[in-house]
Amino acid sequence: MTADLSSLANRLVKGRELSIEEYAFFIENRTPELAQELAWQAVEVRQGIYGKDVYVRGLIEISNICKNDCLYCGIRASNKNCQRYRLTPEEIRECAAEGYRLGFRTFVLQGGEDAYYTDALLCALIRELKEKYPDCAITLSLGERSYESYKALKEAGADRYLLRHETADKAHYESLHPVEMSFENRMECLKSLRELGYQVGCGFMVGSPGQTARTLAKDLKFIEEFKPDMCGIGPFVPHADTVFAKEPAGTVELTCFLLSIIRLLHPPVLLPATTALGTIHPEGREMGILSGANVVMPNLSPVSVRKKYALYDNKICTGEESAQCKDCLSARMRSIGYEIVTDRGDVKKDGRHGRV
Ligand code: SAH
């Protein structure tokens, strides 16, 4: 490793911040040796806060109906080949009941921006779930809504909200989204969610079309400053019915490198080894954990809809029952010396950060 890379690595580990130029330099000049060093450091830092525990989140994909037309996404509004579905509150309750039985203590309700899920419907559902499972956290991942809507959902009992910022570079954001969507609104939503007291998750795809070392460096700077409670990063995977069908997928190598950096620059962050990582490599999720991640998100959706929630091609775990997904992941984690725990898995302070 060159002296430059070594000294940057040291500063990252000790100081937990670098400039945008330095992050970009790091990404452009990374070597397998540097990646290994950062992974070791990230695992050690994570170990100090979370031990060998891996948190599980039961992902319930409530709808693939979406008013948005994000250029990379398989369920974009203009995709006529997508068979649309939405789950009723009753079906969502059944998924949660099965999840609870399997040991899940966080339910993630994720979906497209589907107007069927009004504040009234969601608030009633959240209240019911919280009443029935007071020891569980409810995470929402339903895209951009108004401040009033986020407020009502929070008051109904939602604990966390995942809204990937997608990219911290405005021009890059605009190249991935239609004109109706705005970078400013996405960022404004994240601020509102924080202000309302949610545990907030941001994140981005690795290898999205047009991404550069510099846009990634801006993502890292944003994470360093925003200090999200959760951060979802996973490889971009092309979907055949989108304009990006022919683009290459992101790599495991770069995703794992970035996972390590994110752990080091914000140690308490809840960091999933995503399903997309498992999709591009058979041991992708294990590699993610060994690079500093500490969360996995197995699927709890009814098997009948899993293939339809196709954000990208070849998604794994679309034919299995929820119990199989959980068992498979438990075995995978155990094989690398980690343990899936039955726990809400809230963010922990590491003693050095005021806010986490
Ligand atoms: N509608 C919600 C949930 C989006 S789906 C929202 O707007 O937040 C969750 C994430 O999947 C997205 O934020 C995006 O980063 C990711 N995603 C979408 N298409 C993808 C693709 N082709 N490859 C990899 N990840 C993708």
Detailed description of the structure:
The chain has 356 residues and is of the alpha/beta class. It has a single domain, classed as Aldolase class I (TIM Barrel). The chain has 14 helices and 9 strands. The strands form 2 sheets. It has a 6-stranded parallel beta sheet. Helix 2 (20-28) crosses helix 9 (213-226) and helix 5 packs parallel to helix 6 (147-156). The two termini are 32 Å apart. It binds S-adenosyl-L-homocysteine (SAH). S-adenosyl-L-homocysteine binds next to loops.
Number of domains: 1
Ranges with pLDDT <50 over ≥5 residues? none
First-residue to last-residue Cα separation: 32 Å
Total strands: 9
Q: What small molecules accompany the polymer chains?
A: S-adenosyl-L-homocysteine
Tell me roughly what share of residues is in helical segments: 40-55%
- Overall pLDDT metric: 96
Instruction: Describe the largest sheet.
Output: 6 strands, parallel
Structural class: alpha/beta
Q: C-alpha Rg, in Å?
A: 19 Å
Quick one: CATH class? Alpha Beta
CATH fold category name: TIM Barrel
What is the 3D shape? Answer: globular
Per-chain topology:
Elements (H helix, E strand, L loop, with lengths): L2 H13 L4 H9 L3 H19 L2 E4 L1 E6 L25 H13 L4 E6 L7 H14 L4 E5 L5 H10 L3 E3 L7 H7 L6 H13 L3 E8 L6 H14 L3 E6 L16 H14 L9 H6 L3 H6 L5 E2 L6 H4 L15 H14 L3 E3 L15
Parallel strand pairs: 1-8, 1-9, 2-3, 3-4, 4-5, 5-6, 6-7
Bound molecules: S-adenosyl-L-homocysteine.
